[in-house]
Write a structure and sequence with these properties.
Length: 81
């Protein structure tokens, strides 16, 4: 993921944030939080902001959409080029 916050870049912050989100039957994020921090509050906040904008395919049970929790990593790596 590209970090637009110059503070994180200047501080040489990299890492992985494990985000947990509850997905609605329409595929929208309705609740979320940091499951495991990167150790850098700027990266944690950036990961939550990114996931908030994502769209998901809802889980199904008996061919019907259901709310479900998902958990996944958001990786931040500095590109030195």
């Amino acid at each position: 993921m590209c970090i637009r916050d110059r503070s994180a870049i200047r501080l040489n912050q990299q890492g992985t944030v494990l985000v947990q989100a509850k997905i609605s039957t329409a595929g929208d994020v309705i609740e979320m939080g940091v499951y495991q921090s990167s150790g850098h509050p700027l990266l944690d906040a950036a990961a939550l902001a990114a996931v908030r904008r994502w769209a998901f395919v809802p889980a199904t049970r008996n061919n019907q959409p259901v709310e479900a929790w998902v958990r996944g990593p958001v990786h931040f790596v500095l590109n030195t080029r």
